[in-house]
Each structure stands twice: as C-alpha cells, then as structure tokens.
UniProtKB/TrEMBL annotation:
GO terms for cellular component: cytosol; protein-DNA complex. This is Response regulator transcription factor. Residues 3-121 form the Response regulatory domain. InterPro entries: CheY-like_superfamily (IPR011006), OmpR/PhoB-type_DNA-bd (IPR001867), Sig_transdc_resp-reg_C-effctor (IPR016032), Sig_transdc_resp-reg_receiver (IPR001789), WalR-like (IPR039420), WH-like_DNA-bd_sf (IPR036388). The modification 4-aspartylphosphate is found at residue 54. It comes from Chitinimonas arctica. Transmembrane segments: none annotated. The lineage of its organism: Bacteria, Pseudomonadati, Pseudomonadota, Betaproteobacteria, Neisseriales. Keywords: DNA-binding, Phosphoprotein, Transcription, Transcription regulation, Two-component regulatory system. GO terms for molecular function: phosphorelay response regulator activity; transcription cis-regulatory region binding. GO terms for biological process: regulation of DNA-templated transcription.
C-alpha cells in the first residue's frame, strides 16, 4: 500500500487534494500535516512514497523549501510534488534545483492535471528501485520502456518535470530519426506550439548538462523538429 503525506496549511485545499488522491487510488494511505514542525517530524519517522506540499505554510513563506531540504538530508529519495500559489515562472526552477519531481501552480491546473501528475510520479517511484539496481553502462541513457520515466544518465537520475520526461522518451525511442514538432505536440497536455516544445528541449539539455557538461545528443533540425543522435551511428555533432 502506498503512503502519501499532504503538507498544506489550508484545510479545504488539503481535503480537496486528499479527495482527489483517494478518487484516483482508493487504497492509498493519506496523512495530512498543516505545519512545518509536524511535517518534518512525520517525514523523519515515516517512509512516505510521495509528499505533496505547499511552499508557504502559515506565516513561514518558505517552509516547504525547508521540508524538501529535510527530505533530501534524510537521503530516502522520497519524491516531492509541489502544489503552490507561488508563481511557477520563478519557483519551478528553484524546486528543480532542490530535486522536487514536479511543480503545479494553484488556480492554473484542474483535477485531471493533478491526478495525472500524481499517478505518474507513483508509477515512477515503483519502478525506480529496479532501474537503479541496473545502472546503464558507459554513457547510455536508461529509461523504463513501460513507464517512460526515471531516466538515468551515467547511472544518475536526470531531474526532469514529467512533460519533459515524456518528450525525452519519445526522442529516445526514435533515436537517429527526426521527431517532428507535430509528433511532440502529441505528448504534451498544453502549450502545443513550437516555442513551448523548444523550452522543454532546453530544460532537458540543461538537466543533462548538470550531470555531463559535454552532453550534446539532442540535435535541432531547423523547421522540422529534433533528433536524439547516437554517436556510434555517426550522428553526434
């Protein structure tokens, strides 16, 4: 049975998130915490499969950041889904740097968006242990072929939002071939335009270069799309 913690100081919001989770997976054990101190104490003693948290708790503007740091310090690898009213344009990159799995900005997403993101993270955590026990050799990319998640590069997890994970999986499945913008539109849920795809590609490249500064596998094919190049096939540039 999965065990999930919701850290949210607003009771109606906390209850709504709990209801959404239970509607998606009725058997999940959900624990609700409303303060930083209570949440940190629970995280220290419990092994959660996923933590859903707000950044601002009460008057403490960055309580969620402290909780993520506590999770990272415990080295349990517990995935964190941030649900916050803080502007995504500012805080998504901050949460990425803290190794949070994804960021949803309140009032900008619907129930279906939350459930899809939540379930994808659960599936990723289920397969993560298997993926990490068989790290890739050399510089090969490892992606779970069923879940299209938990990408590993040189044995290290590539920290990507879920939409970027889906784009990466699509490129890698068709490596050596040009993947058109139109094909990539099919794997994003919103922002189906070329500028948005290019932003996701930029995010993917940055995440890889955090692990490997020489990473250059994703080629831009002008006016057409992108290609994952295999150096063994002579496609690397």
């Amino acid at each position: 049975m999965f065990k999930v913690a919701i850290v949210e100081d607003d009771l109606p919001t906390s209850q709504q998130l709990k209801d959404w989770i239970l509607s998606a997976r009725p058997g999940i054990q959900v624990e609700q915490w409303f303060t930083r101190d209570d949440a940190e104490a629970a995280i220290a003693r419990e092994a959660y499969d996923l933590v859903v948290l707000d950044i601002e708790l009460g008057r403490e503007r960055h309580a969620g950041v402290a909780i993520i740091n506590a999770i990272n310090k415990g080295r349990r690898g517990t995935p964190v889904l941030v649900v916050s009213a803080m502007p995504a344009t500012i805080y998504r990159s901050i949460m990425k740097a803290l190794d949070a799995w994804d960021y949803l900005q309140k009032t900008t997403f619907e129930e279906s968006d939350f459930i899809d993101t939540f379930l994808e993270i659960l599936r990723a955590t289920r397969s993560q242990d298997e993926a990490e026990t068989a790290p890739p050799r050399g510089d090969e990319l490892s992606i779970d072929p069923l879940r299209q998640s938990t990408p590993l590069w040189q044995g290290q997890r590539v920290n990507l939002p879920l939409t970027a994970q889906r784009i990466l999986a699509t490129l890698y499945q068709q490596r050596g071939q040009v993947v058109s913008y139109e094909d990539l539109f099919l794997v994003v849920k919103s922002g189906r335009n070329r500028d948005n795809i290019r932003k996701h590609i930029s995010t993917i490249r940055e995440a890889f270069r955090e692990l490997d500064e020489d990473f250059d596998r994703i080629e831009n094919i002008p006016m057409r799309g992108f290609r994952w190049s295999d150096p063994l096939a002579g496609g690397r540039k």
